[in-house]
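Q: My labmate handed me this sequence with no annotations at all. I'd like to see what the chain might look like in three dimensions before we decide whether it's worth expressing. Could you predict it?
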Amino acid sequence: RCGLDSDLLGMARHVREKPGDRDLGRGVVGTTTPRKLSGAQLLFGIVSAIAVLGGVVASPQGSCQAGDPDCTEPEVSDHGIASVLKAAESNKVVRYPDETNGLPIFDLARLAEAISPPTHTDGEDAGVERMTAAAALRDALLNKGIFYIENTGVEVETLARTVREATKPYFDLPSTEAEHLTRPGTPPRGLAPLESESVAALLGVGTHTDFATKWSLGNNPKFENVWPEGDADFKEKWIKFQDEGLGVSSKLFDVITTVLGLANTTAADAIKESGGESNIRHIHYPDVPPARCSDSDVPPERMAAHHDLDIFTLIHQTPCENEFVSLQGQFGGSKDWVGVPPVPGTLVVTCGEVLSIISGGQVTATTHRVTVPPSSLSVGSARTTTALFWQPHADFKVNPPADSHFTGGYDFPEDGIRFEDWISIAFSNLASTQKAST
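A: Here is what I predict for the chain of 438 residues:
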């Protein structure tokens, strides 16, 4: 039913039967004894080889868990993976429009439904849909690290617009009138004026500033938010965005931990029980002046390339009037930069370093940047983003990886470090000391 051929058949036959496979209620998956399979059963076996049924295979590219004598490496071809992803698309769990440069857009509601635990009333088709949906999400997590979600259960465009409209008057204030709204530190709160921060300095890769104005808040009561005096509407709109964003984050975390085999692990349970913490940053990138465009001598970034220090980030972005695509990412092991354009009604998802840690390195934190246009596109290059950084609670212990962007030269203890302490160390150099343009 999905263009199955001998290549895919071979993939299914590479997965050996494990104890308990016969209890799945879908027929034997990849048994070593030849038997005739229906089309749905065959596809189920194929997807299992790619999508990791019961942890047999650790990635869509075919990596067995260490020490498992009952696992053999399947030869998973690009054609085989493409066939399974096409099956997931036909079930309307995901779509791959040309405009997103090959990045998938997942229907979060359908995805959550598709991978929900099986019931005794499920038929073969439900099993196929479950495994193809899992395969598509795993492919996005392991091989891309950037994807979109839609049908999240919230009015994404309305929420983002209300925050944008509520915040713009404070971005427009003269610096002398905005000082009381600024609270730098770790984590930052309130207003960060234009070019007052530098991700490049934070990472030790340069001194050029972030060409952006930012407003930040979070839900950790230890760090007091900044609320403009007498503007109850401002607070109401930001809190609504935060609450709705936390709900979406929880749903997304559920499906991610399910397909990665992390559900009910100590780490996942600790994050779920706490509800996670959020830091939200609404960022306005004004038109880039010619002196800072890509054909100038300044590094070609509005914000330097980086990973996020969180589980994942949800990003809403508005388009540049001149259609320049400013958000870029790297994926699939390539160093090439790929544009991540705005798509109405969606949120962009990037994977953070904490997700990489709790997944045992299955997921790689997404490298992304905000780039500048050539001087010919200087006018009309303004854009905004509203990003929710979903993090573990302050006391969650982590062991930062050696290649983390956020080690700061610090010698971490062997038994790990509290997340709050790690983020404090990492963000100590965020404040900018040098402007890159005039």
